[in-house]
Amino acid sequence: MTDTQTNAAPITLPLLGPGPDYKRVTVWLPQLFLETSRAGAGSLLIENRTFNECLIEGPAVLLALEGCQFDGCNMGDAHGDIRSLMLQPSSPQRVTGPIPFKNCTFINCRFLGVGFTGTPSFMDSLTRALGGAPA
Length: 135
What we know:
Number of helices: 2
Oligomer: single chain
Strand content: 25-35%
Shape: globular
Structural class: alpha/beta
């Protein structure tokens, strides 16, 4: 099958910008990652940002490095088991693919289609904060 449209307009999204503060906006994580990497001399780390009452959308996996806080957030639909939102890294040193965040604060945000990963201590604290694993 051949696409016969030759002058179709490309899909464009408004820029999220460098922050550091985002309030009541929809943040598509792949877009934020690309904007950050293009603007910061190839930086692959989203750092020192605050997200307040935002919708954080995937599909994506958020890698929480040190200093990340989640206050009053809806982490997404866990389908009865909050562990379904988490992915445990296989390597103790590095993980490739997830979008890394450092020293970022999420206040009253809602996550949609986002998984979470990080150190074992982060994973344990997130599990406890969200009510633990089902019995």
